[in-house]
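Entry for the shared binder. Reason: the reviewer on the internal report wants the predicted structure included alongside the sequence.
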Amino acid sequence: IGLHIQLNHQSLKCPIPIPCHVKLRILHMMGIHDIAIDYCGCEQQIPQHIQLLRHGWYPAS
């Protein structure tokens, strides 16, 4: 079972989703998770990296 997240839409499905080409690895206090995401592809879309930041996902090194 895999988790699939739609960014930039609060509990709504985007009519024009853009699938991420790779699964993202999320580090959480409950473990490490690989998830699939869809970026918002609507006419008023914001850049993909901003969608991730607004969702509260920050890059790690």
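Summary line for the report: The chain has one helix and four strands.
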